[in-house]
Amino acid sequence: MRTLPLHRRDIPVSTLVLGCMGFGGKDWFDQGPLTAEQIKQGREAVDAALSIGINMFDHANIYKSGKAEQVFGEILKEQKSLRDKIFIQSKCGIRFADDKAPFTRFDFSEENILQTVEGSLSRLGIDYMDFLLLHRPDPLVDPEEVASAFRKLKDAGKVRWFGVSNMSAAQMKLLQKYLDVPIVVNQLELSLYHHNWVDASINLNQAPAADDIFPEGTIEYCRMEDIQIQSWGSLAQGLYTGRALDNEPDTVKATAKKVQDYANQKGTTREAIVLAWLLKHPAGIQPVIGTTNPERIRACGEATRIELTREEWYDLWITARGKGMP
Ligand SMILES: NC(=O)c1ccc[n+]([C@@H]2O[C@H](COP(=O)([O-])OP(=O)(O)OC[C@H]3O[C@@H](n4cnc5c(N)ncnc54)[C@H](OP(=O)(O)O)[C@@H]3O)[C@@H](O)[C@H]2O)c1
I need a labelling partner for 9 at 20 to 30 A (CA). Which of 35, 161, 189, 261 fits? Predict the structure, then answer.
Protein backbone atom coordinates (compact mmCIF):
# COMPACT_ATOMS: atom_id res chain seq x y z
CA MET A 1 0.00 0.00 0.00
CA ARG A 2 1.24 3.48 -0.82
CA THR A 3 1.22 6.95 0.73
CA LEU A 4 -1.78 8.92 -0.45
CA PRO A 5 -1.01 12.23 -2.17
CA LEU A 6 -3.55 13.88 0.17
CA HIS A 7 -1.43 12.74 3.12
CA ARG A 8 1.52 14.54 1.55
CA ARG A 9 -0.64 17.68 1.82
CA ASP A 10 -1.30 16.88 5.50
CA ILE A 11 -4.96 16.02 4.91
CA PRO A 12 -5.57 12.91 7.03
CA VAL A 13 -8.22 11.14 4.95
CA SER A 14 -8.79 7.39 5.15
CA THR A 15 -7.44 5.11 2.43
CA LEU A 16 -10.99 4.07 1.46
CA VAL A 17 -13.86 6.46 0.77
CA LEU A 18 -17.53 5.52 1.08
CA GLY A 19 -19.40 6.53 -2.09
CA CYS A 20 -22.93 7.59 -1.25
CA MET A 21 -24.53 7.28 -4.71
CA GLY A 22 -26.57 4.32 -3.42
CA PHE A 23 -28.20 6.38 -0.64
CA GLY A 24 -31.74 7.72 -1.03
CA GLY A 25 -33.52 4.76 -2.66
CA LYS A 26 -33.31 3.08 -6.03
CA ASP A 27 -35.20 5.65 -8.13
CA TRP A 28 -32.96 8.51 -9.31
CA PHE A 29 -35.83 10.87 -9.96
CA ASP A 30 -38.29 10.09 -7.16
CA GLN A 31 -39.40 13.46 -5.79
CA GLY A 32 -41.20 12.03 -2.74
CA PRO A 33 -40.06 12.69 0.83
CA LEU A 34 -37.25 10.69 2.41
CA THR A 35 -38.42 7.47 4.00
CA ALA A 36 -37.36 6.03 7.35
CA GLU A 37 -36.04 3.01 5.45
CA GLN A 38 -33.75 5.21 3.30
CA ILE A 39 -32.35 6.92 6.38
CA LYS A 40 -31.84 3.57 8.12
CA GLN A 41 -29.98 2.18 5.09
CA GLY A 42 -27.70 5.23 5.03
CA ARG A 43 -27.10 5.13 8.79
CA GLU A 44 -26.13 1.45 8.69
CA ALA A 45 -23.76 2.05 5.79
CA VAL A 46 -22.13 5.04 7.50
CA ASP A 47 -21.78 3.12 10.78
CA ALA A 48 -20.16 0.18 8.95
CA ALA A 49 -17.80 2.58 7.17
CA LEU A 50 -16.81 4.30 10.42
CA SER A 51 -16.24 0.90 12.03
CA ILE A 52 -13.51 0.10 9.48
CA GLY A 53 -11.86 3.49 9.81
CA ILE A 54 -13.38 5.29 6.81
CA ASN A 55 -13.53 9.03 7.45
CA MET A 56 -14.30 10.31 3.95
CA PHE A 57 -17.66 10.29 2.15
CA ASP A 58 -18.27 10.98 -1.53
CA HIS A 59 -21.41 12.71 -2.79
CA ALA A 60 -22.71 14.60 -5.80
CA ASN A 61 -25.64 16.98 -6.04
CA ILE A 62 -27.24 14.69 -8.61
CA TYR A 63 -27.16 11.44 -6.62
CA LYS A 64 -30.82 10.45 -6.40
CA SER A 65 -31.56 14.04 -7.41
CA GLY A 66 -30.28 15.33 -4.07
CA LYS A 67 -31.79 12.62 -1.85
CA ALA A 68 -28.43 10.95 -1.16
CA GLU A 69 -27.16 14.21 0.35
CA GLN A 70 -30.44 14.64 2.26
CA VAL A 71 -30.06 11.19 3.82
CA PHE A 72 -26.52 12.08 4.87
CA GLY A 73 -27.80 15.37 6.31
CA GLU A 74 -30.26 13.40 8.47
CA ILE A 75 -27.43 11.19 9.74
CA LEU A 76 -25.36 14.27 10.62
CA LYS A 77 -28.34 15.69 12.53
CA GLU A 78 -28.59 12.47 14.54
CA GLN A 79 -24.84 12.28 15.23
CA LYS A 80 -23.88 15.88 15.90
CA SER A 81 -20.24 15.18 16.75
CA LEU A 82 -19.67 13.38 13.45
CA ARG A 83 -19.23 16.42 11.18
CA ASP A 84 -15.88 17.47 12.60
CA LYS A 85 -14.46 13.95 12.42
CA ILE A 86 -15.05 13.31 8.72
CA PHE A 87 -14.29 14.68 5.27
CA ILE A 88 -17.26 15.36 3.02
CA GLN A 89 -16.78 15.56 -0.73
CA SER A 90 -19.41 16.54 -3.27
CA LYS A 91 -19.51 17.33 -7.00
CA CYS A 92 -21.09 19.82 -9.33
CA GLY A 93 -21.45 20.36 -13.04
CA ILE A 94 -23.92 17.73 -14.29
CA ARG A 95 -27.42 18.99 -14.99
CA PHE A 96 -30.23 16.56 -15.70
CA ALA A 97 -33.28 17.61 -17.74
CA ASP A 98 -34.95 20.57 -16.07
CA ASP A 99 -37.04 23.62 -16.93
CA LYS A 100 -34.20 24.95 -19.13
CA ALA A 101 -33.52 21.84 -21.25
CA PRO A 102 -35.08 18.39 -21.72
CA PHE A 103 -31.69 16.63 -21.72
CA THR A 104 -28.61 16.07 -19.56
CA ARG A 105 -25.72 18.46 -20.10
CA PHE A 106 -22.64 19.66 -18.24
CA ASP A 107 -22.42 23.16 -16.82
CA PHE A 108 -19.28 24.65 -15.30
CA SER A 109 -20.61 28.19 -15.39
CA GLU A 110 -19.88 30.24 -12.28
CA GLU A 111 -23.56 30.64 -11.58
CA ASN A 112 -24.20 26.89 -11.71
CA ILE A 113 -21.17 26.00 -9.57
CA LEU A 114 -22.14 28.51 -6.87
CA GLN A 115 -25.82 27.52 -6.87
CA THR A 116 -24.99 23.82 -6.78
CA VAL A 117 -22.74 24.20 -3.75
CA GLU A 118 -25.44 26.15 -1.90
CA GLY A 119 -27.91 23.34 -2.63
CA SER A 120 -25.51 20.62 -1.44
CA LEU A 121 -24.59 22.47 1.76
CA SER A 122 -28.26 22.98 2.52
CA ARG A 123 -29.22 19.33 1.90
CA LEU A 124 -26.25 18.11 3.94
CA GLY A 125 -27.02 20.66 6.67
CA ILE A 126 -23.39 21.82 6.87
CA ASP A 127 -21.58 25.17 6.58
CA TYR A 128 -18.68 23.92 4.46
CA MET A 129 -17.70 20.90 2.43
CA ASP A 130 -14.14 19.60 2.49
CA PHE A 131 -13.79 18.83 -1.21
CA LEU A 132 -15.68 20.01 -4.27
CA LEU A 133 -15.10 18.20 -7.58
CA LEU A 134 -16.10 19.19 -11.09
CA HIS A 135 -18.02 16.06 -12.06
CA ARG A 136 -17.51 15.58 -15.83
CA PRO A 137 -15.68 17.82 -18.31
CA ASP A 138 -17.86 20.56 -19.80
CA PRO A 139 -16.69 21.31 -23.39
CA LEU A 140 -17.98 24.88 -22.95
CA VAL A 141 -15.94 25.49 -19.82
CA ASP A 142 -14.46 28.95 -19.35
CA PRO A 143 -11.59 28.31 -16.89
CA GLU A 144 -11.70 31.92 -15.69
CA GLU A 145 -15.31 31.44 -14.57
CA VAL A 146 -14.37 28.28 -12.69
CA ALA A 147 -11.46 30.15 -11.08
CA SER A 148 -13.77 32.93 -9.96
CA ALA A 149 -16.31 30.47 -8.52
CA PHE A 150 -13.62 28.52 -6.66
CA ARG A 151 -12.10 31.72 -5.27
CA LYS A 152 -15.49 32.90 -3.97
CA LEU A 153 -16.22 29.50 -2.38
CA LYS A 154 -12.80 29.35 -0.77
CA ASP A 155 -12.95 32.94 0.53
CA ALA A 156 -16.45 32.35 1.96
CA GLY A 157 -15.16 29.24 3.77
CA LYS A 158 -17.68 27.05 1.97
CA VAL A 159 -15.17 24.69 0.31
CA ARG A 160 -11.72 23.77 1.65
CA TRP A 161 -10.16 21.94 -1.32
CA PHE A 162 -10.99 21.52 -5.01
CA GLY A 163 -10.72 18.72 -7.53
CA VAL A 164 -12.02 17.26 -10.74
CA SER A 165 -13.44 13.99 -11.96
CA ASN A 166 -13.16 12.12 -15.25
CA MET A 167 -10.58 14.61 -16.56
CA SER A 168 -7.46 14.03 -18.63
CA ALA A 169 -4.07 15.55 -17.90
CA ALA A 170 -4.56 18.10 -20.68
CA GLN A 171 -7.89 19.22 -19.26
CA MET A 172 -6.43 19.54 -15.76
CA LYS A 173 -3.44 21.53 -17.03
CA LEU A 174 -5.69 23.98 -18.87
CA LEU A 175 -7.85 24.50 -15.81
CA GLN A 176 -4.93 24.77 -13.40
CA LYS A 177 -3.38 27.55 -15.52
CA TYR A 178 -6.29 29.79 -14.42
CA LEU A 179 -6.98 28.56 -10.89
CA ASP A 180 -5.34 30.13 -7.86
CA VAL A 181 -6.07 27.01 -5.82
CA PRO A 182 -4.49 23.63 -6.59
CA ILE A 183 -6.42 20.73 -8.07
CA VAL A 184 -5.91 18.11 -5.37
CA VAL A 185 -8.19 15.24 -6.52
CA ASN A 186 -9.07 13.54 -9.80
CA GLN A 187 -11.77 10.85 -9.55
CA LEU A 188 -11.65 8.34 -12.42
CA GLU A 189 -13.25 5.00 -13.24
CA LEU A 190 -10.44 2.57 -12.40
CA SER A 191 -10.71 -1.04 -11.37
CA LEU A 192 -9.47 -4.53 -12.11
CA TYR A 193 -12.34 -4.74 -14.60
CA HIS A 194 -11.96 -1.23 -16.03
CA HIS A 195 -8.21 -1.70 -16.51
CA ASN A 196 -7.50 0.35 -19.65
CA TRP A 197 -5.72 2.94 -17.46
CA VAL A 198 -2.96 0.37 -16.76
CA ASP A 199 -3.03 -1.07 -20.27
CA ALA A 200 -2.32 2.44 -21.58
CA SER A 201 0.99 2.44 -19.73
CA ILE A 202 2.38 -0.49 -21.76
CA ASN A 203 0.87 0.22 -25.16
CA LEU A 204 3.62 2.32 -26.71
CA ASN A 205 4.14 1.14 -30.28
CA GLN A 206 1.53 -1.60 -29.88
CA ALA A 207 -1.59 -1.92 -31.99
CA PRO A 208 -4.25 -0.58 -29.58
CA ALA A 209 -7.34 -2.63 -28.72
CA ALA A 210 -10.73 -1.05 -29.39
CA ASP A 211 -11.16 -0.05 -25.74
CA ASP A 212 -7.65 1.39 -25.26
CA ILE A 213 -9.02 4.86 -24.84
CA PHE A 214 -7.45 6.07 -21.62
CA PRO A 215 -5.85 9.50 -22.19
CA GLU A 216 -2.08 9.21 -22.18
CA GLY A 217 -0.20 10.84 -19.33
CA THR A 218 -3.17 11.31 -17.00
CA ILE A 219 -1.97 9.01 -14.24
CA GLU A 220 1.59 10.35 -14.64
CA TYR A 221 0.44 13.99 -14.41
CA CYS A 222 -1.49 13.28 -11.20
CA ARG A 223 1.57 11.60 -9.74
CA MET A 224 3.87 14.46 -10.71
CA GLU A 225 1.54 17.08 -9.22
CA ASP A 226 0.56 15.11 -6.09
CA ILE A 227 -3.07 14.99 -7.23
CA GLN A 228 -5.01 12.34 -5.36
CA ILE A 229 -6.37 9.77 -7.79
CA GLN A 230 -9.64 8.37 -6.52
CA SER A 231 -11.12 5.33 -8.25
CA TRP A 232 -14.85 5.06 -8.81
CA GLY A 233 -16.35 1.70 -9.76
CA SER A 234 -13.57 0.25 -7.58
CA LEU A 235 -15.52 -2.94 -6.81
CA ALA A 236 -16.41 -3.39 -10.50
CA GLN A 237 -20.02 -3.27 -9.30
CA GLY A 238 -19.58 -6.68 -7.66
CA LEU A 239 -18.41 -8.58 -10.77
CA TYR A 240 -15.58 -10.33 -8.94
CA THR A 241 -17.13 -10.38 -5.47
CA GLY A 242 -20.27 -12.44 -5.76
CA ARG A 243 -22.55 -11.05 -8.44
CA ALA A 244 -24.19 -13.63 -10.74
CA LEU A 245 -21.91 -14.21 -13.77
CA ASP A 246 -24.10 -16.36 -16.02
CA ASN A 247 -24.02 -13.94 -18.95
CA GLU A 248 -20.48 -12.66 -18.44
CA PRO A 249 -17.52 -13.50 -20.71
CA ASP A 250 -14.93 -16.15 -19.77
CA THR A 251 -12.35 -13.51 -18.76
CA VAL A 252 -14.70 -12.19 -16.08
CA LYS A 253 -15.45 -15.69 -14.81
CA ALA A 254 -11.73 -16.57 -14.76
CA THR A 255 -10.88 -13.35 -12.91
CA ALA A 256 -13.65 -13.89 -10.37
CA LYS A 257 -12.21 -17.36 -9.71
CA LYS A 258 -8.68 -15.97 -9.27
CA VAL A 259 -10.00 -13.35 -6.85
CA GLN A 260 -11.74 -16.09 -4.85
CA ASP A 261 -8.60 -18.29 -4.88
CA TYR A 262 -6.36 -15.48 -3.62
CA ALA A 263 -8.92 -14.57 -0.96
CA ASN A 264 -8.92 -18.20 0.22
CA GLN A 265 -5.11 -18.42 0.18
CA LYS A 266 -4.74 -15.22 2.19
CA GLY A 267 -7.68 -15.85 4.50
CA THR A 268 -9.34 -12.62 3.45
CA THR A 269 -12.36 -11.37 1.48
CA ARG A 270 -12.83 -11.07 -2.28
CA GLU A 271 -13.46 -7.34 -1.84
CA ALA A 272 -10.05 -7.02 -0.16
CA ILE A 273 -8.31 -8.66 -3.13
CA VAL A 274 -10.05 -6.43 -5.68
CA LEU A 275 -9.21 -3.29 -3.71
CA ALA A 276 -5.67 -4.41 -2.83
CA TRP A 277 -5.06 -4.64 -6.58
CA LEU A 278 -5.78 -0.89 -6.84
CA LEU A 279 -3.83 -0.08 -3.67
CA LYS A 280 -0.72 -1.82 -5.01
CA HIS A 281 -0.37 0.77 -7.78
CA PRO A 282 2.39 3.28 -6.95
CA ALA A 283 0.13 6.28 -7.67
CA GLY A 284 -1.42 5.87 -4.19
CA ILE A 285 -5.00 5.40 -5.37
CA GLN A 286 -7.83 6.10 -2.94
CA PRO A 287 -10.67 3.69 -3.81
CA VAL A 288 -14.24 4.95 -3.51
CA ILE A 289 -16.50 2.01 -2.64
CA GLY A 290 -20.14 2.31 -3.64
CA THR A 291 -21.74 -0.55 -1.76
CA THR A 292 -24.41 0.31 0.80
CA ASN A 293 -24.39 -3.23 2.20
CA PRO A 294 -22.80 -3.13 5.71
CA GLU A 295 -21.37 -6.64 5.35
CA ARG A 296 -19.70 -5.76 2.04
CA ILE A 297 -18.40 -2.49 3.48
CA ARG A 298 -16.79 -4.38 6.36
CA ALA A 299 -15.37 -6.89 3.85
CA CYS A 300 -13.67 -3.97 2.07
CA GLY A 301 -11.92 -2.97 5.29
CA GLU A 302 -9.66 -6.02 4.98
CA ALA A 303 -7.99 -4.44 1.92
CA THR A 304 -5.72 -2.24 3.97
CA ARG A 305 -4.40 -5.23 5.91
CA ILE A 306 -3.09 -7.29 2.99
CA GLU A 307 -0.65 -6.66 0.18
CA LEU A 308 -0.45 -8.47 -3.14
CA THR A 309 2.92 -9.55 -4.44
CA ARG A 310 4.10 -8.22 -7.82
CA GLU A 311 3.33 -11.65 -9.35
CA GLU A 312 -0.17 -11.80 -7.85
CA TRP A 313 -0.89 -8.28 -9.15
CA TYR A 314 0.23 -9.19 -12.68
CA ASP A 315 -1.63 -12.50 -12.54
CA LEU A 316 -4.93 -10.72 -11.79
CA TRP A 317 -4.32 -8.05 -14.44
CA ILE A 318 -3.37 -10.56 -17.15
CA THR A 319 -6.44 -12.67 -16.34
CA ALA A 320 -8.74 -9.64 -16.44
CA ARG A 321 -7.14 -8.43 -19.73
CA GLY A 322 -7.51 -11.88 -21.22
CA LYS A 323 -4.00 -11.60 -22.69
CA GLY A 324 -0.40 -11.45 -21.54
CA MET A 325 2.21 -8.75 -21.82
CA PRO A 326 3.33 -7.54 -25.26
N1 LIG B 1 -17.12 10.56 -10.54
C2 LIG B 1 -17.99 9.86 -11.20
O3 LIG B 1 -18.30 10.13 -12.38
C4 LIG B 1 -18.67 8.72 -10.51
C5 LIG B 1 -19.47 7.82 -11.24
C6 LIG B 1 -20.07 6.77 -10.55
C7 LIG B 1 -19.85 6.61 -9.19
N8 LIG B 1 -19.09 7.51 -8.51
C9 LIG B 1 -18.82 7.37 -7.05
O10 LIG B 1 -18.13 6.17 -6.84
C11 LIG B 1 -18.86 5.33 -5.94
C12 LIG B 1 -18.63 3.89 -6.33
O13 LIG B 1 -19.01 3.68 -7.66
P14 LIG B 1 -19.95 2.49 -8.09
O15 LIG B 1 -21.08 2.39 -7.16
O16 LIG B 1 -20.22 2.66 -9.53
O17 LIG B 1 -18.98 1.26 -8.00
P18 LIG B 1 -18.65 0.01 -7.08
O19 LIG B 1 -18.21 0.40 -5.75
O20 LIG B 1 -17.75 -0.77 -7.94
O21 LIG B 1 -20.00 -0.84 -6.99
C22 LIG B 1 -21.01 -0.61 -6.05
C23 LIG B 1 -22.31 -1.13 -6.61
O24 LIG B 1 -22.15 -2.51 -6.91
C25 LIG B 1 -23.07 -3.28 -6.12
N26 LIG B 1 -22.35 -4.45 -5.62
C27 LIG B 1 -21.13 -4.51 -5.05
N28 LIG B 1 -20.81 -5.77 -4.73
C29 LIG B 1 -21.86 -6.53 -5.09
C30 LIG B 1 -22.12 -7.90 -5.03
N31 LIG B 1 -21.24 -8.78 -4.52
N32 LIG B 1 -23.29 -8.34 -5.49
C33 LIG B 1 -24.17 -7.48 -6.00
N34 LIG B 1 -23.99 -6.14 -6.10
C35 LIG B 1 -22.83 -5.67 -5.65
C36 LIG B 1 -23.48 -2.40 -4.97
O37 LIG B 1 -24.75 -2.77 -4.52
P38 LIG B 1 -25.02 -2.86 -2.92
O39 LIG B 1 -25.16 -1.45 -2.45
O40 LIG B 1 -26.28 -3.64 -2.83
O41 LIG B 1 -23.85 -3.58 -2.32
C42 LIG B 1 -23.45 -1.01 -5.62
O43 LIG B 1 -24.65 -0.79 -6.35
C44 LIG B 1 -20.28 5.84 -5.99
O45 LIG B 1 -21.01 5.60 -4.80
C46 LIG B 1 -20.05 7.32 -6.19
O47 LIG B 1 -19.78 7.93 -4.93
C48 LIG B 1 -18.48 8.54 -9.16
Answer: 189
Query: Within a domain: residue 228?
Result: yes
Pocket of ligand 1 (CB under 6 A): 19-22, 58, 135, 165-166, 187, 232-238, 241-243, 288-293, 296
C-beta of residue 196 within 8 angstroms of C-beta of residue 208: no
How far, in Å, from the CA of 228 to the mean position of ligand 1?
20
Is residue 320, in this structure, part of any structural domain at all? no
| Domain interval for residue 159 | 5-246+283-304
User: Which CATH number fits the domain that encloses residue 171?
Assistant: 3.20.20.100
pTM of the predicted protein model: 0.97
Catalytic: 63? yes
Number of domains, the chain: 1
Beta-carbon contacts of residue 76 (< 8 Å; ≥ 6 apart): 82, 83, 124, 125, 126
| 205: three-class secondary structure by DSSP | coil
